[in-house]
Amino acid sequence: MTTPQEELLPATRRALLHRIAVAQTEGRAPSLVAAVVRDGRTVWHGARTSVDGHGPDENVQYRIGSITKTFTAVLVLRLRDEGALDLGDPLEKHLSGTGAGEATIAELLAHSGGLAAESPAPWWERTPGSLRPELDDVLGKQPLLHPVGRRHHYSNPGYTVLGALVEKVRGASWEEVLREEVLKPLGLNRTAGHPQAPYAGGWAVHPWADVMLAEPAEDLGRMAPAGQLWSTTGDLARFAAFLAKGDDRVLSYESVREMRGPAAPMEAADVADGAAYGLGLQIQHRDGRLLVGHSGSLPGFLANLTISVEDDVAAVVLANCTSGPLLAGVGADLVRVVAEAEPRIPEPWRPLPDVDTSVLELAGQWYWGTHVFALRLTSDRGVSLEPLSGAGRRSRFRANGDGTWTGLEGYYAGESLRAVRRPDGTVSHLDLGSFVFTRQPYDEGAPVPGGVDPEGWRGIG
Fold it and tell me: pTM for the complete prediction?
């Protein structure tokens, strides 16, 4: 239950209910259940069902398909943070003999390792996992279809390999490691590899008639790290809050933020669609918002998790049908409804508790050639540099404690920023990765690369 301070307004709740009602009716889903998270808490839950009586609640399990991949990615990032591996390591360093060993761990996480989209026939989603007992059965005789690292090609076998990597390093099954290291710490007690009552049955709905066919619920075996999990809107809401803010018991904020950043080469169609892929997370620019999360599907089930970190709103949508409602759109709409109807109230502005005067004197206008920039002090004791024209290169910088800063994003990510001082202690210029920023455009008193024309600025006479 939520407290009155956390509840959504009645009009917002009705808009959310209307959206999922339309999705369930038009998508002809036997049932559809959804939840909305704001400020790390579940603030709304709704369900629509074709069965008379009580609809599914936040504790009813549905199969979540490829959202499982995000859980697997969390396990791999944990190994990285512990120092057990590096994302730049080739797979062969930790798991030999796969035939895909030249792909790095990061490339496998981002689906750019060159692997096939599916395992060899018969189709793994509707056949027992016992048909593919070994990695060779999953990868086939020719695991690589594309040059490693060159393109984003979604690969279910790639996440099977990552699950095997977790098992090799931990010395335990993927599901056991997931339960002990992620599910238990986050309190995801209704998320598991196999259904636990109450759970929804999976159905196929005939495309041309309002009749249904039961879908098989296969144990995926080796393919489990790519799509095995069952979960609930309640658990996935808590997982969404974790992906937005991190939890040091599982993965730090810095690491979940890393997961949310683009990590795969984008093709022309992806650029046009505003879509990208991070480390186990899908990324999309939609309706002016940057959304991260993951969709999932298996025969009989559809799932979606969508997060707008900037709005601090997330949505979970689950349905028990093979096809029908487009849940990625539903999830994005639920986020939009809340973000627009009840926009996030920012924290009160507060001044810095103290300030280094040697940094404060750097604030203000700087020029790179004739381009004018503003340097500002940030609340985290770093600085930001951005063009005053509104377009161009911009970045936040982290203080290194030695009078220098390191870029955190964009063109200047990883680049070093420092203030260069004259013998008398006054600031001559800023050096940013060899770029000279001066207080005046082409300042004669600063070492501008190429020098400054001694005739100075002039008009045409």
Answer: 0.92
